[in-house]
Amino acid sequence: MSRPRLIAQTREIDPVEDLLAHTSADRPLAWLRRGDGIVAAGSGAPVVIRVGAGEAAAAGSRAAALATAWRELTADAEIDDPVGLPGTGLVAFGASTFDEDSAADSILVVPSTVVGRRGGRGWITRIRTAEEAADGARLVEPAPYGSHWAGRVGPGAQTPQSYQERVRDALDEIAAGRLSKVVLARDLTGTVPADADLRRLVRALATGYPDTWTFAVDGLIGASPETLATVHERTVTARVLAGTTARGADPDGDTAASAALAASVKDLDEHEYAVQSVLAALRPHTRALAASEQPFLLKLPNLFHLATDVEGELSDAASALDLVGALHPTAAVAGTPTPAAVAAIRRLEPFDRGRYAGPVGWVDAAGDGEWAIALRCAQFADAADDSGARRVTAYAGAGIVAGSDPESELLETRVKFRPLVDALA
After folding, report:
1. By C-alpha distance, which of 188, 158, 228, 185 is closest to 345?
2. Of the candidate ranges 93-97, 135-139, 300-304, the one whose mean pLDDT is the lowest
3. Rounded CA gap, 30 and 182, in Å?
4. How far is 258 from 374, CA to CA, in rounded Å?
5. By the 8 A CB rule, do 30 and 37 touch?
6. Is 185 left (phi over 0), alpha (psi -120 to 50) or beta?
7. 181, 270, 272, 349: which one is catalytic?
């Protein structure tokens, strides 16, 4: 399939105070953290690349198909970027499915206008095809936010009772030696008003959870604490999260909860599985790969995670999309051994995860980019249904290992649902 030749021009502007005000209200496209990030201004997109199960099978994986398409698209692109910060130049926002066989599409979206901010500097990038006339680098006025709205979600295909039953089934498979860990998810479904300004949800997540990656890509909106891979000037970094507990109700409760997590053999084992899966995936592409010997406690507003940071120097020409393909799915969101865990997920979960627990992020023409795992997220339907409302499905999961307690794992999913449920309400 032939791709258009793209021309991208980046120019520095005064930093934009509210990036979200410049993106679409019903189809926001955003990547934010601690107030910095990039958004697509307006809704124009010169190129949208979609990869389904068929194309993924032909290429070997969805990430491989996206990586190939992106290389072809950027090979003869004309890029004028004197700013040179992460997120400038020719960029695409992306989201991919958890399962290669998912009925959902994986996607890369190249916006016509990108507005960004990083480290106190701002920029605007115009992207067009070679056939289109240049439009200058002026900043379009921000659009006012729509009225406040509320959405409601309730039990989906995996009810609380059935979730605990599936956890028991998973424990039977672990006891039989078929796998060491499997991450089981459940869903909540509901509706939001058809005219809901989804930027309000993105802003609520970004404000409430500033240390996460807040994202909005093709109807997938969430706030993930877990970095899958960041690539910048030949350095790759990742953050592994596995092992979770709720925050305490007061400082003493916090201290007790964090101490219990740090000493939990079950959670430490689960975390080690996840770290080793990331290291094994990155070793073929890196030299001087390093990870901290012991996990640290990552404190979020509603819970603690065991976390380990990984860093390495790339030894080959792998792009961020190539590394996404090598890393996904990690043991943190699938299990160990990964093929057996994915097969168990297909048997035990009564729904298609779609892009939940899949890669989400952005990539530039040099192959650099920032990608997270799509957690604490919900997928919004493209348009209203017959009732005049827009359907939404949220997901949360927990890692099941020997010694897991079904009721405790259910409670963990409730804690993980809280950021999105609170923001929707």
Report:
1. 185
2. 135-139
3. 31
4. 25
5. yes
6. beta
7. 181
User: Of the residues 173, 226, 349, 412, which is catalytic?
Assistant: 226
Tokens of 73: 């698209």
Is the previous residue joined to 419 through a cis bond, with omega within 30 degrees of 0? no
Residue-wise pLDDT tens digits, 297-319: 988 887 888 999 999 999 888 89
Tell me whether residue 80 is exposed, middle or buried, using C-beta atoms within 10 angstroms of its C-beta: 0 to 12, 13 to 18, 19 or more. middle
Give the DSSP H or E segment for 216. strand 213-217
Q: Which amino acid is at 328?
A: H
Enumerate domains of the chain plus CATH numbers: 6-131+150-424 (3.60.120.10)
CA–CA separation, 160 and 398 (whole Å)? 13
**88 burial class (0-12, 13-18, 19+ CB within 10 angstroms)?**
buried
Virtual CA dihedral for 326, 330, 331, 332, nearest 10 degrees?
A: 160
Taking the C-alpha atoms of residue 8 and residue 118, their distance in angstroms, rounded to an integer, is 19
CB atoms within 10 A of CB 78: 11
* 140's tokens: 């379009």
Query: 200, 185, 186: which is closest to 151 by C-alpha?
Result: 200
Quick one: how far is CA 117 from the chain centroid?
20
The reply to whether 226 belongs to the active site is yes
Prediction pTM value: 0.91
pLDDT tens-digit readout, 377-412: 999 998 888 888 999 999 999 999 898 999 999 999
